[in-house]
Amino acid sequence: MRLPPAVWSIVQAQLLWLRPGIGIKRWLLLLLAGATLLGLGLAYLAIDVYRSVPLPPAAGALTLRFIPLLGRAALFGLIGLAFMLVAVAQVQRTLLAPFVRPGEDIAGAVSAHRRRGRGPKIVVIGGGTGLSTLLRGLKAHTSNLTAIVTVADDGGSSGRLRQSLGVLPPGDFRNCIAALADDEALTTQLFQYRFGGSQDVGGHSFGNLFITAMAEVTGSFERALVESSRVLSIRGRVLPSTLHDVTLIGELALAGEAVSRVEGESRITLAEGAIKRVSLQPDQVPAYPAAIKALLEADLIALGPGSLYTSLLPNLLVADLAAAIAASRALKVYVCNTATQPGETEGYSVLDHVLAIERHTRPALFPVVLANRLQTGELLPRLKWVAVDPPLNGARRLVLADLADADRPWRHDAQKTAAALMALLSQVEAGRSQPIGPQ
Predict the structure, then answer these.
(1) How open is the CA angle 357-405-238, to the nearest 5 degrees?
(2) Of 97, 233, 271, 363, which residue is 20 to 30 A from 17 by alpha carbon distance?
């Protein structure tokens, strides 16, 4: 006998709760055991009444005596099972409705949530759009995500809020929170909305004002990040590299080997000359303790993608963070940019990026380098593909994969890059050392 399509869809939806790893079967068995015992008790009571109370002849049809005993048991069992399925479906729909998007399969959502909760501990370090892009891809694989964000930004809306209110620059934190939000499309649109005009809130993004207001309400910037993340139900954490007010200093080489000193992250890329070195002022600032703890507990630490000198290195210049990365037993991967960046890395190859990081930190701090292999598509003016060097050396492993966004190849594709990192982590956990692409 074929069930009607509507009934069959209900049965299929309920069978999803029996998938491994969802953590619900044990409670369904307990519910079934309780219902069985309750039914057994009611059955004993019904049998006692049936045997002790005389019934009129017309009651024979009501007691279904004309059906064999096994047939009656099967009939009542099927009716009871149908009642239980409908009841469980309605209870779970009522209880979980506030937490599931309209039209989303509840069992599938719970299963995915449980799977992500058991995912690896991943820490991503950086700033700018590169960091938020990678987080957007990784959140599909794990909820144990930590973003460590630079606090050296001093341009645009973040710079104005930093200067006028003395808060840490909220811009990169805003991007990361929006990327990790459960309802990313709406949150991103809201957080990235910029007010018009040239005075007061003109030019500020709503997300920057939201985080700044939350800092005023909660009394601290770090508490503001926690509460903002809770309000938006993000999958992971967003942490500052340090809570101290720092300024990024750049040393630029001019023609004739003259060196100029430029203060401020937003001014470095606009100044003439090639960047030789960057530093923090003050230079000895303590790292945010939660960031150190996350690095030491991580299974995977990824640096980048992002602006080499103004988004990535400011984090590594916090000495405690660099030391924690070196001490961590995690897989450490540097995700190199797909294209060069005017004012920062013009003419750089993959090896040039790696050597710049090691000049500021220590050799082979990130022993695995993940770079883009498929260099196709049209880049923006002044951008060039980052040249891929031969295998770097024995201390560094170069892994090539298709990482570029098909529509904007100067940026990384969130899903491709996340998949490449997860494949690397799986290989390490499986004890293999083969790269996922040609070296």
Answers:
(1) 55
(2) 233
The residue written with tokens 């892009």 in the block is: 133
Determine contact, residues 346/377, Cβ cutoff 8 Å: no
Task: Quickly tell me which residue has 């606009």 as its tokens.
Answer: 270
What is the distance between the alpha carbons of residues 345 and 353, in angstroms, rounded to a whole number?
A: 8
Strand ranges inside 172-246, DSSP E = 237-240
Identify the structural domains of the chain with CATH numbers, from first to last.
5-113 (no CATH), 116-246+283-429 (3.40.50.10680)
- Per-residue pLDDT tens for 85-139? 777 777 666 666 655 556 666 555 555 656 666 789 999 999 989 999 999 999 9
Q: What is the CA radius of gyration of the chain?
A: 29
pLDDT tens track for 152-198:
999 888 888 988 888 999 999 999 998 998 776 777 788 888 888 76
Joined together, the tokens standing for residue 317 give 């210049």
Instruction: Give burial (CB, 10 Å; 0-12/13-18/19+) of 272.
Output: exposed
Q: Which residues, at least 6 apart from 345, have a Cβ–Cβ distance to it below 8 Å?
A: 308, 309, 337, 352, 353, 386
**Both tokens assigned to 37:** 């015992």
Q: Where are the alpha helices (DSSP H) in 53-155?
A: 69-96, 106-117, 128-138
Q: Phi then psi for 411, rounded to 5 degrees?
A: -120, 160
Task: List b or e across 63-89, with b for residues whose CB sees 16 or more CB atoms inside 10 angstroms.
Answer: eeeeeeeeeeeeeeeeeeeeeebeeeb
Contact 315, 321 (CB under 8 A): yes
Q: Which helix (H) or strand (E) holds 360?
A: helix 350-360
The model's pTM is 0.78
Q: Which residues of 221-233 are buried (b: 16+ CB within 10 A; e: fewer)?
A: bbebbbebbeebe
Of 348, 399, 393, nearest in space to 370 by CA: 399
